[in-house]
Amino acid sequence: MAWFKKTKPKDTNKRVKIPEGLWVKCNSCKEIVYRKEVERNLQVCPKCNYHFRISAKERLTLLIDGGTFQELAGDILPTDPLKFKDSKSYKDRLEENRKKSGLTEAVITGEGRLNGIPVVIAIMDFHFMGGSMGSVVGEKVTRATEEATQKGVPLIIVSSSGGARMQEGMFSLMQMAKVSAAIARHKEAGLPYISVLTDPTFGGVSASFAMLGDIIIAEPKSLIGFAGPRVIEQTIKQQLPEDFQRAEFLLDHGLIDMVVERKNMKETVYRLLTLLK
Amino acid sequence: MIRYYLDFEKPIQELELKIEELRRLSNGSDKKAEEELGRLEQQAETLRNEIFSKLTPWQKTQIARHPDRPFTMDYINMITDDFIELHGDRRFADDPAIVGGLGSIDGINMVIIGHQKGRGTKERIRRNFGQPHPEGYRKALRLMEMAERFRKPVLTLVDTPGAFPGIGAEERGQAEAIATCLMVMSRLKVPVISVVIGEGGSGGALALSVADRLYMLEHSIYSVISPEGCAAILWKKNGEIGQEEYARAADALKLTAQDLLKFKIIDGIIQEPSGGAHRDPEAAAMNIKETILSTIEELKDAEIEKLLEERYKKLRRIGKFTRQSE
Predict the structure, then answer these.
(1) Least reliable range by pLDDT among A13-27, B132-146, B223-237, B292-306
(2) A-proximal residues of B, 284-313, CB under 8 Å
(3) Which of the four pLDDT bands, split at 50, 70 and 90, describes residue A16?
């Protein structure tokens, strides 16, 4: 073989390889930052204030008073109503996500107290199938909403989702209507619903309960929208502006009430609930 | 009329052209030609029934998007005794991708709203291919609230590839507009009837179809994502995707009226004439009209509170899950 035909093996290791665990690259400013420092900072980049995606469990400890949380409907599990198969079956995909995330589904729901105020809360987790909404997410959020209505307490939903779950087809789409109907009843009962949007919130979740809050709060720099940026780019064949669909962009366009940092979230929600009393 | 034929409609095309030709030549006096005509028509009917009874989900998708298929305004013109279109959301603009107004069907006054696709390049662009912006949904909301005030039932006709994904749509709150439609429709204090007449494209379609009764035309589709979108997510990384992948995705998504009736996601299927709604729009329209009238008859005396409770329960039941066995 001629020497010049030899191609250099592509060495991906030559790129800056960050050792597992010790350092972490910020999704926003691309700076390499010390993981411990990020953790101490509630998973917020110390350089640019980007809020890293955190698990529902971490979020729970940041919002709900210790020892007061009681999970609701934690035993509801997904099935495969369409027998959906692509390269992998939906069942296998679910199993994989269960192992990877340590969760049974993309949302945790329950009741607890927030600085002493009894609330019902639903927290989505992007680590389970991209936080997508299928029958289980829809059912759990609906039950949580009904529980809040019945108990006469405020509802808090923290969203993080790529949208409706394709693998459950129309069952997923109809969850948007189901949850929205439950929220309509909660509103009619004169109870507050606070919607917290985190990175990212899109599609079937933003186009249903996430945008229906009496008060809508977003974490800084979160990407929030109806259609994903890639879909929009392909449709209009234009590059999108840098700040497009960021929390601050939504605030400018009058679509949300405020952008609040993670460290101030609990206190802000508490003050809002107090003022709405 | 120049008709558009899909690949799998081509055998029908040959026969239909032959029939037309013969009819033109015979002008009704030649007995032999008349006999031949009758025989050919019989043959065409059999062929249409044969092809249309075995449509695959991907073929149904193409029928649902057929350029000759009747659109919302076509049906409105065929089923109403009177209709006045109303425009604008009173906030930003009038969205031509959603039409709505006051109409009367067999003497029953109602508010009619639907997605509107265009025919011909210019009109298709003006209607944005039936993809609404937020102002379209806000116009729909305005009309629904008006219906509630004047106690008129609401009829919606659903036919859209989806809500438009664009910069302006995002800036003006596409997600909020759709979400509000879902919430308002779930509590609207008048009967709501929805009919999917063509393409039921995801959230953009759902926004007009939270109803007491949701029907689909026999060859319409309703899906959480388009077969093309689904195929792109699943198989694009393995290289080029095309018809074969779209067909696989359409199969997997279970988007036909027949599948969705089985899942109890819709309440009924409205039959289409032989060879699809586009072969005989009047017949399709009459079937829709009949269904609307019988549904109105069924719902008109219902107490509002009970109607809302039933509507809620209907949505509440949708979803498949199990309980952890311990």
Answers:
(1) A13-27
(2) 311-312
(3) low
Query: Which DSSP letter does residue B256 get?
Result: B
Instruction: Enter the tokens of residue B94.
Output: 């009038």
CB-based contact, A188 to chain B, within 8 Å:
yes
Residue A166, CA distances (Å) to A57, A82, A163, B64, B224 in order: 25, 10, 9, 20, 6
Q: Which residues of A touch B315 (CB under 8 A)?
A: 174, 177-178, 181
* CATH fold label, B61-316: 2-enoyl-CoA Hydratase; Chain A, domain 1 (3.90.226)
Calculate how close chain B gets to A22, using CA atoms only, in Å: 31
Torsions phi, psi for B154 (to 5 deg):
-110, 130
Assembly ipTM? 0.95
Partner-chain residue, chosen from B171, B178, B254, that has the shortest CB–CB distance to A207: B178
Domain boundaries along the sequence of chain A: 20-52, 53-276
pLDDT given for residue A4 in this prediction = 63
pLDDT of residue A223 exceeding 60: yes
Domain A53-276 has CATH 3.40.640.10: no
- Give the closest of B230, B312, B322 to A77, CB-based: B322
Local structure of residue B63 (DSSP, 8 states): H
Q: What is the pLDDT of residues A85-102, one digit of tens each?
A: 877 899 999 999 999 999
Rounded Cα gap, residues A57 and A62, in angstroms? 9
Can you tell me the mean pLDDT for A222-228? Answer: 96
- pLDDT over 80 (residue A274): yes
Write out chain B residues lying below 8 Å of A244, CB-based. 167, 170
For chain B, which residues make up each domain, given as ranges?
7-54, 61-316
% of chain B residues with pLDDT over 90: 85
- Identify any residues that bridge with A258 across adjacent strands, giving them in sequence order: A217
The yes-or-no verdict on residue A9 having pLDDT over 90 is no
| Single-letter code of the amino acid located at A28 | S
Return d(Cα A158, Cα A217) in angstroms, integer.
9
Helix/strand/coil for B92: coil
- Tens-place pLDDT, residues B162-196: 999 999 999 999 999 999 999 999 999 999 999 99
Element (H, E) at B160: strand B154-160
Residues within 8 A of A (CB atoms), B 256-275 only? 260, 263, 265
**Residue A61 C-beta-side C-alpha neighbours within 13 Å:** 5
Rounded mean pLDDT of B39-60? Answer: 94
